[in-house]
Specification:
By secondary structure, this protein is of the alpha/beta class. The chain has five helices and four strands; from the N terminus they run βαβαββααα. The radius of gyration is 14 Å and the shape is globular.
Length: 142
């Protein structure tokens, strides 16, 4: 059964239209050639995500997102978890002077793009990732 589920360590009042977001993500991942089987999106605190970053990635720094691809095959249907720091979303939105809702969706799309094979370590990859995020934001919010 194909499914996207949201889990909340704390309230996320700026995540509205969850059903529409699920449908959009299902549709887009399918168009990218890797349909979603199961995707859990967990909204958590900075402290929780920092602990995960230390424990699983050996990074001692705050981050807005950590993505785990749990799929059986790198080209098969997606089974994954995305952890998102609500604290980082709020802080990044303030710094970038964008609405919190927009930043939240950008980060969700960023995580899904990682699962679809997009990278962001090199400058050229970052530019492509940002372009794809912008495309998804435009398509979703039109």
């Amino acid at each position: 059964m194909r499914n996207i589920r949201f889990f909340f360590q704390l309230p996320v009042p700026f995540l509205r239209k969850r059903t529409a977001l699920k449908a959009f993500l299902m549709n887009r991942s399918k168009k990218f050639g890797r349909p979603i089987n199961t995707l859990n999106i967990i909204f958590c605190t900075d402290a929780f995500l920092l602990s995960m970053n230390r424990d699983y990635l050996n990074h001692n720094e705050y981050t807005d997102i950590i993505t785990f691809d749990l799929s059986d095959s790198p080209s098969g249907p997606l089974t994954a978890e995305i952890y998102i720091s609500v604290d980082r979303i709020r802080e990044n939105a303030r710094k970038l002077q964008v609405p919190v809702t927009q930043e939240l969706h950008r980060v969700v799309f960023h995580g899904v793009l990682h699962l679809l094979g997009y990278k962001d370590k090199k400058k050229a990859d970052q530019a492509l990732m940002r372009s794809k995020e912008d495309e998804l934001l435009s398509a979703y919010f039109r």
